[in-house]
């Protein structure tokens, strides 16, 4: 089932044609501290990250006709939801070098920032069409994928200036991770070579604001890869969503795919506290673990329902978002599950 992977894109964006170049200066808006929402409930939680305040922060896409919210949950399960004009169908979230949470707004094509106190700022630029994944990159910059046609990478640099990087090989980029030696690695939903998707390495060029070296790694077995994360030994690990497998790619581009019973539409992936890779099985309503050598274990439990985002929490647990039943889950490395409504 591919509904979930496309729900952020197909339901929200009008994809436009043409090549995107460096964006010019745009607008930002800053809102006063937002009163935690008492009325809205968690509705389609997606991305999740571990915040600098010892809590977990997540994006809440919301249902049709709503703008969603940014959620905060403590390791004891206390939930706070923040809404505001700077939040519009948020998709992914990460922690910036400034100690704030940065997120992609899929509803109004902007990049959002929220402090641990709930102060929201949003940044818009011409050329941002469909922002999805976001990660903290080299030199304190934020990098995000823009799913627009044909697709691009966005960079939030000093004084929050946004630059857009595009090219013929950046085709519908989705997940993004920071790699070794100042590189960015991302998955694409399409390929200019073989297969249904690719893994791309991007090395920014500091001398050219919109420049950078793009290297595409294609494989006929790639079938709509989505999530990607840095793993042990400088490798990158990714989920091969429609291929029902987990992939590993070396910095030289050598790809190996691992299959296993129970891998069912793996969506996002993170390095766990035990040095293994943990991933969400959206289609299988389960959480998966794969060791660096490729041994797969699948964990099921009451309350796991179409999981999407996953991250290691400050308490050593695996925290994940359940987009199917609108809850936040926590799993120990031995497979014990708790969900918070």
Secondary structure tally: strands = 29
Overall mean pLDDT: 88
Helix proportion of residues, in percent? under 10%
The CATH architecture assignment of the domain at 27-124 turns out to be Beta Barrel
Count of separate DSSP helical elements: 1
Structural class comes to: mainly beta
**Segments where pLDDT lies below 50 for 5+ residues?**
6-38
What is the topology?
Elements: H1 3-10, E1 28-30, E2 45-50, E3 56-60, E4 69-73, E5 79-82, E6 90-95, E7 101-105, E8 110-114, E9 120-123, E10 131-136, E11 142-146, E12 152-156, E13 162-166, E14 173-178, E15 184-188, E16 198-204, E17 212-217, E18 225-230, E19 236-240, E20 245-249, E21 255-258, E22 266-271, E23 277-281, E24 286-290, E25 296-299, E26 307-312, E27 318-322, E28 327-331, E29 337-340
Antiparallel strand pairs: 1-9, 2-3, 3-4, 4-5, 6-7, 7-8, 8-9, 10-11, 11-12, 12-13, 14-15, 15-16, 16-17, 18-19, 19-20, 20-21, 22-23, 23-24, 24-25, 26-27, 27-28, 28-29
